[in-house]
Amino acid sequence: MQTTTLDTAFLEHVTGAADVHVAAFLAGHDDDVPALAHRPAMARLLDLVTVFSEPGSRFHRQDHLGVAMRGCLDRLETLQGPTGLFDGTNLCSPPDSAFTLNDACLALRLIRGMAVPDPLMGDVAVRLDGIIARSVDAMVAGGVHTPNHRWELCAALAQINLLQPRQDIGERIGQWLAEGIDQLPDGMYSERSPLYATAVTNPSLLTIADSADRPDLLDHVRRNLTAFLPWFNPDGTVESVFSRRQDQWMAFGAAPFLRLYRRLAVQDGRTDFAAAAAWLATLPLHEPAKLLALSRLNPWLAGALPGAPASDFGRTLPPSLMPPEAALESCGAYRFRSGGSVATVFGGCDPLEPGVGSGLATNPTFLRFGYGGAVLSDVRLSRSFFDLGPFRSQQTVRQDGALVLAEELQANFYQPLPSGRLRADGIYALEHEGRFSAAMEFSARPADVHRLSTRMTVQAGDGQVGLDVDFEGSRTAFALELTFPPGGVLTGVRPAATPGTFQLVAGTGTYRVGGDVIEFGPGLPADPDTPAAYNPGESYRYLGGTNASSGIKVYISGWTSGSRRFIFRGYTLAG
User: How far is residue 531's CA from residue 445's CA, in Å, rounded to a whole number?
Assistant: First the structure.
């Protein structure tokens, strides 16, 4: 590997954070080791090995860490099943075991790389070697159940092959990689998830590239990181509304991206990645001891960033990460910046034929708008149409400088069965008709169809967003839900029926944080038959669940007839 100038300031920063992290769990949590699952037990052991073997750490060669290390090893050996795999929610899971084994391999590589042998580390290495050896047969033969698991499994196998070489390991890695990396045209992986891009797919591809001599895999990581560049937020999060995994419901912290951008910024000499890495380094470090371990094993990660020195980057988002427009077409996600505002439009929900479930993008938030410290985190549209839930765009297109999001819902009333389908016992096929299931053989019945079409036209520019909502079909109630974080000041609204919710019935309302203001409206007259409330749909409520957003809610309610126009505008108070 080509050498590079070490960034000693960065390494000191990471080492200090790793020491604080280790000191915290040694002081307050070490007694919980007998209750730890295998992944956190191994993560803790890796942290301990890292600081013990790091000359710059205050824990360097501190033998009192041996008690904690042996406790973690005891726990891991207890949890390792007869096949060599670890149990958890997914029993005898090769991919879940891969997470633990990847960390085990990192720890063993650190120990083997120590310039001066240490008796304590020798004992740890022997036991880690045994844990890894017992897993190999099952890891080579094992299967997966999510897209990213393939690459985590391959990463573990690639590291195992460095430490305990076997011909069938390389063959198995080749078999998985032959499927191709699941990367969409705009650079997102098929799960469209920043959580899994940072926790699994990108780190795994880097590990496979380095450990199995597959440098071609780095291009996938480069494309993914390039795609994410415009989607970071000044508050230290990254947009995730378009994800197909659980982070679609989260404000996902951006810190885990640091090691990815830093590695390739140094390796490729990319100043755009360096700007992202320098900004990310101002956030609290994610897994600092593991970051230190990886920096020891990969000189690129510990190298000096290209371009301007890190000290030239402040805590504000670098201009290179704030282009006027950005799009992830395959995800139906778009971002616009103008006049100090940022608008994010999402129209890429997956079809719900199989129902709401894990692995689908189903977040009904179609618009976010921010101006300085004032944030409108979620704009959603709820309709009282056969309990089918909120608006989720089925089609998103660009049209005359605007984005058009569209959805058509259908619900049926069913007529009597034809005479040829009648049964004397009155027992008919149990079928699901799109909303619910019943033993009525819906597919054989004539139906009276009710439809509701909703069309959203979003125009962003000049520090504001115009939203035109057009309805066609059934007349029913709707509620436009605006969600704001707690802590700001609302004006122009009145309390609604549910505590903590409000309604805009005329004119415009405002939400202010400091001197930053978001103005929204106009409101619509209150009507007892158009309630100011959000309905997640029967698929959630039947199970007592919800997909409601968190925060302060303001509703604008009305009827699904004709068109409605709403404006969201940001400005700063004078003085």
Answer: 34
